Amino acid sequence: MIKKVLSLFAVMIASTFIFVGTSQAATHTIKKGENLTVLAKKYDTTVKELMKLNDLETTKIQIKQVIKLPSHIQNKTAVKKDTKKSATDPGNVKKTIRMTATAYTAYCKGCSGITKTGLNLRKNPGLKVIAVDPKIIPLGSKVWVEGYGIAVAGDIGGAIKGNKIDLFMNKKSNANQWGRKKVTVKVLKS
Prior knowledge:
By secondary structure, this protein is an alpha+beta fold. Helices cover about 25% and strands about 25% of the residues. The termini are far apart. This is LysM peptidoglycan-binding domain-containing protein.
């Protein structure tokens, strides 16, 4: 009886070591567009190391082929780098201007609610629109305004000349709260 228990225990321990060893072996299933060079960069290894580990004589691999990865990977998935740049990333900015910003609503005295570019602010109170001097910021430009966010240069105003902008606010209380501020404006690339 003791021999059976001991031999059963020995088999269980040996099985554990076998399964632990295989469960830590990281693998990758080849997808369309991948090659060993792509995988080497993705998993921080070399093409030679991948070839040696998988007994490959050439660098040719096939879609759906499962290859082993080096032990330092240990079933970790590759970390994808966020390649999407934010709107205000320097590579997305045409120019940066320091400007004076005031605010307006679609219901101000003499306002129709329709911008110079035809946007109906009364029907679309959630739009982010600024009034600009088109000599400084062309109409239709996408901009980022400090404290306001991303907007479109979609309107002009009689008092908006030079480095001045007017921000559309959907409520008069919001426009009054904004007041007059010096802000950074970034004209974004399309």
